[in-house]
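Field log, afternoon session.

UNIT: design team B
ACTIVITY: writing a sequence onto a fixed backbone
BACKBONE:
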């Protein structure tokens, strides 16, 4: 029997992180029923998002940047079937991975989600995210920031060229 060392495990984790094209995260407050699939953002996209919020008050900047990061990096929003596979929440259709190659009209933080969840009139993507990240009927900034922190940590660990793949799509 071959002994697996900590160094072997670290190498394997590093290699897997470098190849991960998408991140799947449960959306808080949905009990695992709503899953966000995210892609890495390019350096140019990150700069564009930062520029968009730079003139805001510091406290507003952090929230707006978090909202924008979730919106921009979202490939789609899904549910899981009994076997743990991603399915479209509107049809139950299984979606093959990677999602960006196999779902041509995903539900994102857009009108499709507004209709699916019955969110009422919600004119902007930022307002949709605010309604999705709620607890007790109120926007839960901690849930949003925790979610964006997980996305950010994942982006720190992947190869930059994976983000560049999306730029051409």
């Amino acid at each position: 029997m071959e002994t697996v060392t900590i160094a072997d495990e670290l190498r394997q984790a590093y290699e897997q992180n470098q190849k991960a094209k998408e991140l799947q995260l449960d959306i808080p407050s949905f009990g695992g029923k709503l899953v966000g699939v995210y892609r890495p953002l390019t350096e140019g996209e990150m700069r564009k998002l930062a520029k968009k919020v730079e003139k805001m008050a510091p406290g507003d900047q952090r929230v707006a940047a978090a909202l924008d990061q979730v919106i921009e990096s979202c490939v789609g929003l899904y549910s899981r079937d009994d076997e743990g596979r991603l399915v479209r929440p509107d049809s139950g259709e299984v979606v093959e991975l990677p999602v960006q190659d196999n779902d041509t009209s995903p539900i994102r933080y857009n009108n499709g989600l507004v209709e699916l969840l019955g969110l009422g009139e919600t004119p902007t993507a930022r307002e949709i995210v605010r309604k999705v990240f709620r607890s007790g009927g109120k926007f839960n900034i901690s849930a949003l920031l925790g979610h964006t922190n997980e996305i950010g940590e994942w982006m720190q660990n992947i190869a930059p060229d994976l983000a560049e793949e999306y730029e051409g799509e």
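LOG NOTE: The chain is about 50% helix and 10% strand.
NEXT ACTIVITY: expression trials, pending approval
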